[in-house]
Amino acid sequence: xxxxxxxxxxxxxxxxxxxxxxxxxFQRIYVVFLILGTVVGxxxxxxxxxKAYKYRASAHAGDDRDRPSVGEIPTGSGGGRKLFVSFTxxxxxxxxxxxxxxxxxxxxxxxxxxxEGEPLEVRVVGHQFYWEFVYPNGHSSANTLRVPVDRRVxxxxxxxxxxxxFGVPELRAKADAIPGQETDTWFIAPETGTYQAHCYELxxxxxxxxxxxxxxxxxxxxxxxYANTTSSGSGNASASAVGETGVSERVA
Length: 252
Ligand SMILES: [Cu+2]
What we know:
The protein has helices spanning 2-13, 22-54, 81-109, 219-227, 237-251, and strands spanning 120-127, 130-134, 140-142, 144-148, 152-159, 164-168, 173-177, 183-188, 193-199, 212-217. With 252 residues, it is an alpha+beta fold. The protein folds into two domains: 2-57 and 76-114, no CATH class; 120-251, Cupredoxins -  blue copper proteins (Immunoglobulin-like), CATH 2.60.40.420. The protein is elongated. The site of copper (II) ion has 7 residues, from loops.
């Protein structure tokens, strides 16, 4: 176990495992698989076309001498060596790819060793049919999550009533919202702007309207906004009250 952890740390220190925002890491996985799939596809199809051309039916009778017949095992091309080399190469590529993806996903699960600065921790509570965001100072807001740019945001997702699923597609963050349970996810927004959040678990008649907004603000702007929030939840006191009764009803 210790060796596995040290191998993981070692890999993280190298450039092998991509680090950064979730969007960046998933984009890297996508690109690596796309390139490798394209290369394998080109090699396989080119080789197939070459063989189809080489052993094509000849117009002249008697030219078919070196064409293999159905069921004939090919000989005279290095025996088992060709098979051995291609099998070994494929095995190395596949195993490396599995290892790389595994360590990359480990990083996505737990990016602790390489992120600087304190993450912002926000509690996300799903309700029929809105999202409640609770900040460290107790401030609660409905449907709008405000975060600073370039800072890791750690979400603890849960639900006050039924199963929901909180997701922000552009930031590649997604987590189940289950009553009585907490699911963690995180994201880093590299640019200011507005991102859409949706509910990804059919949760009732209002499911399709259960959208939220992630507002990514400049650090100073966020700091000013956050300093003016109160634990009562400015402007959204009713939302947090509904949330609390919802939780206690379900738990009891
Ligand atoms: Cu929902």
